[in-house]
Structure formats: C-alpha cells, structure tokens
Amino acid sequence: xxxxxxxxxxxxxxxxxxxxxxxxxxxxxxxxxxxxxxxxxxxxxxxxxxxxxxxxxxxxxxxxxxxxxxxxxxxxxxxxxxxxxxxxxxxxxxxxxxxxxxxxxxxxxxxxxxxxxxxxxxxxxxxxxxxxxxxxxxxxxxxxxxxxxxxxxxxxxxxxxxxxxxxxxxxxxxxxxxxxxxxxxxxxxxxxxxxxxxxxxxxxxxxxx
Length: 209
Hints:
The protein is an alpha/beta fold and about 210 residues long. It is about 40% helix and about 15% strand. It has two domains: about 5-130, Response regulator (Rossmann fold); about 140-195, no CATH class. The N and C termini lie far apart (about 40 Å). This is Response regulator.
C-alpha cells in the first residue's frame, strides 16, 4: 500500500487532506511541523510527501531539500498559493521539489493526480533513472491557442524565463521561444493534427536551450 506523508502546521488543512484521501488505498502519515515530518521520514518508508510551503519553523521548500537528502527516492510535492516565490522556484531548479500544486486545491484533480503518480510507481515508470533525467521538474511545458497565444505555462518554464506566469499568459509564443514564422507554422500545424509538440527550443533573448 503506497505511503503518503502530509505536512502542514495547520491541523484543519491536515484534516481536510485526510478526508480527501480517506477512501484511497494509502497509508497516511501526518506531521504538523517540518521537524516532525523529518522524524517520520527517518522511521517510515514514504512514497510521496505532500507539504505546505509556508510553515513557521521551516519553509516547505527547505523541508523538502532536507527530505531529499534523507530519502532521495521519495516523490516530493509542494502545496502553496504562491507559485512564484523564489524559494519554490529555486527548489524546483535544484530538484528538491518534484512538483508544485496550487492552493486551494480542487479535490478531484488532487486525488486523480496522486493516483496517476502511484500508477507510475506501480509500473516502475517513476524510477531513480527518471529522477536523474529530471522527468518531472526539467520539462518546460506550455499550451497555446490556434493563434499562437500562450494559454498556460508551467512553473519550470517560468523559472527558466525568470518571469511570473501572469506576465507570460496571452503573450505570443514567439515572445518566449526563438522561432521564425515558418517554424511556428509547422509547430502549430503539428499541434493541430496531434494535440501536442515536443522538442528542443531556444528561449527568446537567451542562448539557453
């Protein structure tokens, strides 16, 4: 049975998460501080950590960095209403944080998200190899409409650009990626036919790929 560690200094948040996952087949462990979370991690096998960011004794990003050193195979997820904080972005870039999920969460989406991760673990698709390849943190992703305007963008892409999501949304794709009109047309055509496109790009105003 997969083990899930919930870490938050607010008891009502822990209670809400426990209710959310009560019908799931998880072994739940609850910590009301980062220190308590590290103590549990030292004593128990934990598959996934779901941690708050803003805790009084230690930020969630700092806690997850310590958790990585203590249990590198554990999947580390941060929950926060503040996606663009420097600490979270640095945690993602340094691979301390695998994923960022927004507060307030949507119950069904959060449940499905955890099920998906557990399913990957069960199939051995989430392995140390994937972690070293940065499958979760180092994939910059965005979506755009038929006109090439950006509809959504993930936090890692924002970190690479050094911008907040709200400064990028609705901007043209060419404002963040160096492509001429012919290349852009080819990408848009491929997305229209296949639903997605994946490849190596150069960021606008940057030499970074």
